[in-house]
Amino acid sequence: MKFTVNVECSPEEARRFMGLPDVTPINEALVEEMGKRMEANLALMSPETMMQSWMSVGTQAQDAFVKLMTSAATGLTKP
To answer: d(Cα 27, Cα 33) in Å, to the nearest integer?
Structure first.
């Protein structure tokens, strides 16, 4: 035998009926914290900051490459 029961209730009523805890305060705190972190990270995403970060890494990599090539060239010229 198969039967279907339809119950009309709000999500809050269904949560209480099923005995589930109310996690609304925890959810609100998490959403607030995520918002704060996103706002803090948006400053890091400004074009000026990104270019400064990329350029500092780029010049370091370029300097390291020049040193590598210089040491390789001086190594070839020595007998």
So the answer is: 10
Token pair recorded at residue 40: 């803090």
**What are the E-state strand segments in the chain?**
none
Q: 44 and 51 in contact (C-beta within 8 Å)? A: no
Residue 22, φ and ψ in degrees, nearest 5: -85, 110
Whether the predicted model's global pTM rises above the 0.85 cut: no
Q: How far apart are CA 36 and CA 41, in angstroms?
A: 9
**What confidence tens digit (pLDDT) does each residue in 12-60 have?**
999 999 999 999 999 999 999 999 988 887 777 777 777 777 676 667 7
Pairwise CA distance, residues 12 & 70, whole Å:
71
